[in-house]
Amino acid sequence: MAELPTGIPMALEPLVTRLLAPNASAYTHTGTQSYLVGDADLAVIDPGPDDPDHLAALLRAIDGRPVRAILVTHHHRDHSPATRPLARATGAPIVGAAPFASDYEGGRSDAAFDRDYAPDRVLGEGGSVAGRGWTLTALATPGHTSNHLCFALPETRALFSGDHVMGWATSVVSPPDGDMGDYMASLEKLMGRDDRIFYPGHGEAVDNPARLVRGMLGHRRQREGQILRRLGEGVSAVPDMVARMYAGLDPRLVPAAERSVLAHLHDLRKRGLVAEEGALWRMAA
């Protein structure tokens, strides 16, 4: 994956082609992956950042074929801004995740919100778009963001998992838009499915998705246990918890770790297990 050049279409299976955007970073890995679904006509999933080179690569790969829809898993700037120039170039509607609905942006440590994202049609659970020989059906998977969707391709039992399940790292969950309880419930939801493969927004395809999702659930439960142990030891500030729990972490990722720990704490508070006192946390009485 690290050697995959940007802007070069890669056929993953007869109905799925991947293009890598040139936006590699500590939070996007090698870059955002855009997907073309179909053959005679197409859907484009997560066209990525508004980058002229990536847009040109998408249009070359589309090669004049009708685009039935431009689908968006969620409203982060590494996933949705290219919807607008791509819609102008192809005439296709923008479909998928709900638009930005909050004034909150402070404290984000992953990709910022795309405040200009404006879908022509919002998909809820079970909503779909279709073309010749393909169907994409939305699964509501909130957690990473409140509006996150995955898209199932039943013809090949593939799932486009956006940033909910990635092929290289766990997703950042940053409150208040991100919600750890919702994220865990969305993982449990995927455990009840029989998808053959996941195509994530970042990282390699996941060819044993049930095993990965099970491991992600276990990892989050272990983090929760660590947090409760740190609170029991008297460690009550989020930065101190991260310093104890994430030994050797890349300094660029410390803000993301702090947001995820905070998301766990918010979930534990909702469940009555911890209490907040300003910037400090403690076990609930």
UniProtKB/TrEMBL annotation:
Molecular-function annotations in GO: hydrolase activity
Domain Metallo-beta-lactamase: 31-202
SMART domains xrefs: Lactamase_B (SM00849)
Keyword Hydrolase: yes
CDD domains: metallo-hydrolase-like_MBL-fold
Record's signal peptide: none
UniProt keyword list: Hydrolase
Pfam families with a match to the protein in the record: Lactamase_B, WHD_BLACT
InterPro entries xrefs: LACTB2_WH, Metallo-B-lactamas, RibonucZ/Hydroxyglut_hydro, Sec-metab_biosynth-thioest, WH-like_DNA-bd_sf
Name of the featured protein: Glyoxylase-like metal-dependent hydrolase (Beta-lactamase superfamily II)
UniProt lineage: Bacteria, Pseudomonadati, Pseudomonadota, Alphaproteobacteria, Sphingomonadales
